[in-house]
Amino acid sequence: MLYLIDGYNLLFKFFHSEKNIQTQRNLVIQLLQEKASLLKLNFHLIFDAHHQEEIVAHKSDINRLKVIYTPKGQTADDYILERVFLSKTPSQLTIVTSDNSLAFQAKNMLAQTKSIADFIDFLNEKEIQSTREKEKNKEEFIDTKHNIQRLLKIFEDKLEDNDDFD
After folding, report:
1. Which DSSP state fits 64?
2. pLDDT (tens digit per residue) in 96-119
3. Under 8 Å between Cβ of 55 and 37
4. End-to-end CA distance of the chain
5. Is residue 150 part of a domain?
């Protein structure tokens, strides 16, 4: 599953701050980078590049996170819908946005959708499951008194056998 995330939609929905937009973007990127690595999920975080002079999208890969700034004249919504349209398997894409129009159009092209709030809940739940699985897989081995005595006997027998050959 690939998650196409409406970048500014996520940023403005949950990260209200006095910090400048670049700082907020960096915080969102860092958060998603950590979540993607921890949960082994693939994210494309798409931002509008209103003042972008480049004709093609600008991309940077950070492990399981790809940050994409759309080219000049293309909105993040248009970029996302283009990706869904060009996909051979749109059902394997999840569009993360609280923009009802974008979600409706993506669903009509057979993509899955999650609101920003549902996506954050989904990440938190996956993190809880991951933590539980790690704890479950950590088996603590505690020797019983009987087992210690059995191992001690084996060790002593081996030691005696070695002494016989000296």
Report:
1. T
2. 999 999 999 999 999 999 999 999
3. no
4. 66
5. no
Q: And the tokens for 56?
A: 């093609």
Q: Could you give the CA distance from residue 95 to residue 29 in angstroms, rounded to a whole number?
A: 17
Q: Residue 68: which residues within 8 A CB-CB, separation 6 or more?
A: 44, 45, 46, 47, 57, 58, 59, 79
Coil, helix or strand at residue 65:
strand
* Per-residue pLDDT, 146: 87
Q: Give the helix/strand (H/E) hosting 122.
A: helix 116-137
As given in the structure block, the two tokens for residue 61 are: 């890969």
What pTM was computed for the model? 0.75
For residue 52, pLDDT beyond 60? no
148 lies in a domain? no
Q: Which single residue is written with the structure tokens 């937009």? A: 21
- Locate the DSSP E strands across the chain: 2-6, 42-47, 58-62, 65-69, 93-96, 112-114
Q: What is the CATH number of the domain that holds 119?
A: 3.40.50
Q: Are 77 and 102 in contact (CB under 8 A)?
A: yes
The residue segments making up the domain with residue 33 are: 2-137
User: Which band of pLDDT confidence, cut at 50, 70 and 90, is reported for residue 53?
Assistant: low
What pLDDT, on the 0 to 100 scale, is given for residue 160? 79
Q: Please report where in the chains the tokens 């970048």 appear, as a residue.
A: 7
- Is 77 within the bounds of a domain? yes
- Total structural domains in the chain? 1
